[in-house]
TrEMBL record:
InterPro entries from the UniProt entry: DUF318, UPF0718
Annotated compartments: Cell membrane
Source organism: Metabacillus rhizolycopersici
Name of the protein in question: Permease
Statement: the UniProt record of this protein carries the keyword Cell membrane: yes
TM regions (residue ranges): 12-34, 46-68, 88-110, 122-145, 151-174, 217-235, 269-290, 310-332
Amino acid sequence: MNKSAMIVKEFIGLALIAMFFYLFLFVDFQGFSFEMPKRFLNVNTIFLSIVLEAIPFILLGVFVSALIQTFVSEELVKRFLPKNAIIALLPAALLGAIFPICECAIVPVVRRLIKKGMPLHVGVVLLVGAPILNPVVFASTYYAFQSTTEIVYARMGLAFVISIVMGLIMYLLFKNRNQLKWSKDELIGRMKAEEALKDVGKIKSTLFHASDEFFEMGKYLIIGALIASLFQTFLDRSILMELGSNETTSPAIMMAFGFILSLCSEADAFVAASFGGTFSAGSLIAFLVYGPMIDLKNTFMLFAFFKAKFVVTFVIVVTIVVYVSVLVYQQILL
């Protein structure tokens, strides 16, 4: 794309943003006689709530990603990881416990770490474990389930074990072969961008990387949030509620809820608590564990930046592992 075309594209984008803010702040639509169907208003409300809930964490993720790009070298990543692929799984799971990052933000962070030399299976451990194991999620879950703290500890314990199991399975399947998606245009564009940033200070470089990453991730967040809001509005939940009384099917139903609702892991515990009178403890745990590991919006992000075969395999494996883990937990401890 030549320079004049890029300027026109940026101008159109800025004009659309300016028009949106003008309409939002200064135009009163109450005088219009057109009435939008309530269901579509509901789609709009849910869509905005998902996007507004996710954007702060996306910003956190892209800034962490940009800091890693600017200040963390490939040698530093390799130095702090154990050489043995299996032994590296445990410290990766422990690292996930101190990352204050939800599933909205973990994708750009893991992608950047893999680019910096982190093995794929270690990245998978972070991708699966960090959105649940971090202290913010523990605190929100504990607050939501103060009367049933076993759900809190079950969520954390299962997430820790599953993250290690996922890392091991993905290592056996892919042997750390490169699974990042790179197009020819992207490679050429990034090489030019890196050249342009060589003479720029580290702070400016961090801001440039963060802005590029934010707009790159943002479009997939919007697509995922729109589809999630459509599902939430038009899906007949009464059928799912009827299936929720069965011990075998209810965890699967709540996993489907977790995938479709696409809630942020810092807030999903309060939604899960509202289902307490309808679903079993095991199914609530399935909801709390599966949703942050894979949902609609981060599935779009994964497809955008990882190879399709890897993403499909990841989704299938994490679904099977979580479902089987919850069934085993129900049989042994509930």
